[in-house]
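Customer escalation, tier 2.

The customer says the design service returned an amino acid string that "doesn't look like it belongs to this structure." They asked us to rerun it and document both sides in this ticket. The original structure tokens are below, unchanged.
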């Protein structure tokens, strides 16, 4: 099969179902952190998965009382800043990057940070525009 016939095949294919980034944001599967990302130096839209948000960013007064005083803005800044640094230090221009940071897990008991890995993926948004998504290494 030639490339032309493959392109024709897919251009004539019927899409059964599509789940857009906009739907994922509306459903809460992704959390838009673009405003904070802009303050860190990113120029394109940024989102984190709900899992990343609930494990490593979200923080309440109850969490501070049970574990250690922190705030959600600082935790988000840490996730974004460490990505910014990892990108600057990365020798490649790949579309994905695994990076590390130290964070206190939101588990109701931890008081000391643990080193975790996150994956940042740059890809096309719903209209082909560049967008960043931060997720766990095993998420897609």
């Amino acid at each position: 099969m030639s490339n032309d016939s493959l392109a024709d095949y897919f251009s004539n294919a019927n899409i059964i179902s599509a789940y857009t980034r906009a739907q994922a944001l509306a459903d809460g599967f992704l959390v838009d952190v673009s405003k904070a990302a802009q303050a860190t130096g990113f120029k394109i839209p940024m989102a984190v998965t709900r899992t990343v948000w609930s494990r490593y960013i979200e923080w309440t007064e109850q969490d501070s009382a049970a574990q250690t005083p922190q705030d959600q803005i600082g935790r988000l800044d840490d996730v974004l800043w460490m990505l910014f640094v990892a990108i600057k230090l990365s020798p490649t221009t790949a579309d994905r990057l695994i990076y590390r940071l130290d964070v206190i897990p939101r588990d109701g008991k931890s008081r000391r940070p643990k080193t975790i890995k996150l994956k940042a993926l740059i890809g096309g948004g719903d209209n082909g525009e560049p967008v960043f998504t931060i997720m766990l290494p095993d998420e897609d």
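Tier 2 assessment: The sequence is consistent with the input. The CA atoms of residues 21 and 126 lie 6 Å apart. The mean pLDDT is 90. Sent an explanation to the customer and offered a walkthrough call.
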